[in-house]
Amino acid sequence: MVILLHGYGSNGDDLIGLVPYWRNALPDTVFLSPNAPQPCPGAPGGRQWWPLTSFSPEARAAGVREAAPALNAYIDAQLAAHGLTEDRLALAGFSQGTMVALHVGPRRARLAGIIGYSGMLADPDDLAAAPHGRPPVLLVHGDADPVVPFAAMHQAEAALGSLGFEVTSHVSHGLQHSIDEAGLRLGGQFLTRVLA
User: Fold this and answer.
1) Cα distance between residue 138 and residue 151, in whole Å
2) CA 192, CA 62: separation in Å to the nearest integer?
3) For residue 109, is pLDDT > 90?
4) I need a labelling partner for 148 at 20 to 30 A (CA). Which of 75, 118, 120, 174 fits?
């Protein structure tokens, strides 16, 4: 199972568009792309994992902690519905969805892997103290991203690496806040490996 977690102001219909790129390599995999739990003000049809009233480190940490219970409940329900164990699940997030994935995934016992596109570690200080598994992580970020600073990828890579996570990263040169062909290809290769 791969659960796709969209960014702020988007919805589940957005990232489900990634599935055709990965479907052939993962024919026996169920792909799910839920809506974030809250409507997003000013974005008709858009959803948010938490309100972005502030982008301060404290607000990001509080927000991702607020979002975690809803995602954990969704994960538990979907694993049960499909008769799968946690080691058969990977999370793939974009932007705010990456922040939620990098918060929830390491705090679960034995996730197969996490892909983070154009995101960041929103609550790095709590990660060392939290009981966690260490799923492999792929981070992909454009170095021209005007929304989430490119430096956030290296910060997440260093923080996760210092805790013993296997982290692979890729810089998409000239890419803004998006996912490019290289990122899709690497994501497919990563999922094929961790779900094999």
Assistant:
1) 15
2) 33
3) no
4) 75
Domain span including residue 127: 2-194
Catalytic residue among 14, 103, 123, 145: 145
Segment 134-160 shows an average pLDDT of: 96
pTM: 0.96
Q: Identify the active-site residue in 87, 126, 132, 177.
A: 177
**What is the C-alpha to C-alpha distance for residues 18 and 6, in angstroms, rounded to an integer?**
11
Residues 10, 95, 118, 172: which is the catalytic one?
95
Is 113 strand, coil or helix?
strand
User: Would you call 145 a catalytic residue per the annotation?
Assistant: yes
Q: Which helix (H) or strand (E) holds 79?
A: helix 57-82
- Known catalytic residue: 177? yes
Query: pLDDT exceeding 90 applies to what percent of the chain?
Result: 87
Number of domains composing the chain: 1
What is the per-residue pLDDT across 65-101, written as a single tens digit (0 to 9) for each? 999 999 999 999 999 999 999 999 999 999 999 999 9
Residue 143 annotated as catalytic: no
Q: How does strand 167-172 pair with strand 47-48?
A: unpaired
What CATH number does the domain containing 141 carry? 3.40.50.1820
